[in-house]
Write a structure and sequence with these properties.
With 175 residues, the chain is mainly beta. It is built from 1 helix and 16 strands. It has 2 domains: 82 residues; 71 residues, OB fold (Dihydrolipoamide Acetyltransferase, E2P) (Beta Barrel), CATH 2.40.50.100. The chain has an 8-stranded antiparallel beta barrel. A 4-stranded antiparallel sheet has the order 9-16-14-11, with no helix packed on it. A hairpin with a 2-residue loop joins strand 12 and strand 13. The chain is globular and about 55 Å long. About 3% of the residues have low confidence.
C-alpha cells in the first residue's frame, strides 16, 4: 500500500511518498519513487534490525503515539511521523487542511455513504485495522484506526450519508 508520510525530525518537517512491499527475498521500500531492498528481522526488544543492500545497518524501534502519530527511534535520533493512505492525503490536500487527526475522534476525510460498520463500542482495535467502509466517488474506502485503541462509540450507521469532517467513531481516552 502507498502512504504519504509526514516526518518531523532533526531536519524539520517533510512529506514523502512511501510504499512497502514484502516478499520471500526481503522488503522493498519505494521512497519518493526510488526503490531500495532491505533485509529486516525482529529484535528481542520489539524493534527491527534493518540491513540495506549496500551493507548499511540500523536498529529501529517504532511505537504509535496517543495522538495517532508514530515515533521511530533510530539510534539516538527520534523521528515523528504520520502515515496517511493516498485517498486521505488527497482529500485533506483538496480541502486545504493540514493532515492531522484528533486523538479522540476518527472523522471522515471526504463525503460519502457508510457501507459497513466493522466494529462496535468497547472493541479493542489495532493501528491500521479497518473500522468503517465508506463509498465515495463510486469506490469503497476502508477507514482505518490511526492507532491501537478501544472504541468508545460508533457515531454512524450503515447507509448513512456523511460529510467531510463528520465523526465516524470515538475512542476511549488513553490514560
Amino acid at each position: 500500500m502507498k502512504y504519504h508520510a509526514k516526518f518531523q525530525g532533526p531536519g524539520g518537517e517533510r512529506t514523502r511518498q512511501v510504499e512497502v512491499r514484502e516478499d520471500s527475498s526481503g522488503v522493498e521500500v519505494v521512497l519518493d519513487g526510488r526503490a531500495a531492498r532491505y533485509d529486516v528481522s525482529a529484535t528481542p526488544e520489539g524493534g527491527l534490525s534493518i540491513i540495506s543492500s549496500d551493507g548499511g545497518h540500523a536498529e529501529v524501534v517504532a511505537r504509535a503515539g496517543a495522538d495517532g502519530d508514530y515515533r521511530a527511534h533510530v539510534g539516538h535520533t527520534v523521528l515523528t511521523f504520520e502515515l496517511l493512505d493516498d485517498l486521505t492525503a488527497r482529500a485533506l490536500s483538496a480541502a486545504g487542511r493540514r493532515a492531522t487527526r484528533s486523538a479522540g475522534d476518527l472523522k471522515a476525510a471526504i463525503p460519502g455513504r457508510v457501507l459497513r460498520i466493522l466494529v462496535g463500542p468497547g472493541d479493542r482495535v489495532s493501528a491500521g485495522q479497518p473500522l468503517v467502509v465508506l463509498e465515495a466517488m463510486k469506490m469503497e474506502n476502508d477507514v482505518k484506526a490511526p492507532r491501537d485503541a478501544t472504541l468508545k462509540s460508533v457515531e454512524v450507521a450503515a447507509g448513512q450519508a456523511v460529510g467531510s469532517g463528520q465523526v465516524l467513531v470515538r475512542f476511549e481516552p488513553e490514560g
